[in-house]
Amino acid sequence: MSATKIVDYCPSKDEPYMNERMLEYFKKKLLDWKEEILEESKGTLDQLQEESLHLPDSADRASCETDKFLELRTRDRQRKLIIKIDAALRRIETGEYGYCEDTGEPIGIGRLEARPITTLSIEAQERHEQAEKVHRDD
Q: 55-72 pLDDT, tens per residue?
């Protein structure tokens, strides 16, 4: 399927769920997201390497270190996100993408548009969060 067809395409509830075109659409969406994250990470590494550790003022050094810490923390979150994107891409290849890992039911196009790495339907996610809350309250 050509990239032009994917760009013009928007999944619809009126077509068969997780058909070839829809899967290709979500695959491209995931790959584009991953590429964006990797580009941002490359920029961060370049920036961290260029910043001087020899700032004369201790307040400037402290501020710089805080900024680096926050940036590295963000990058760690993005590293974990890439792992989830790769897992979603594997689910596309195995035919599991778009279906709830708890119930096997369709997750839904709207939810996948909002969070293409999700593995749970809204209902299953709510049950999961409720169970976590109960265990935290114990």
A: 677 777 777 777 777 877
- pTM, entire model: 0.77
Return the half-sphere exposure (C-beta side, CA atoms, 13 A cut-off) of residue 99. 12
Alpha-carbon 132 to chain mean position: 22
- Tokens, residue 36: 């964006």
Please say whether the beta carbons of 117 and 27 come within 8 A: no
Q: Output the CA torsion sign for 58, 59, 62, 64.
A: negative
**Which range of residues forms the domain containing residue 103?**
3-137
Q: The CATH number of the domain where 78 resides is what?
A: 1.20.120.910
pLDDT tens-digit profile of 92-131?
999 999 999 999 999 999 999 999 999 999 999 999 999 9
With 0-12 CB in 10 A as exposed, 13-18 as middle and 19+ as buried, what is 96? middle
Instruction: Tell me which amino acid residue 15 is.
Output: E
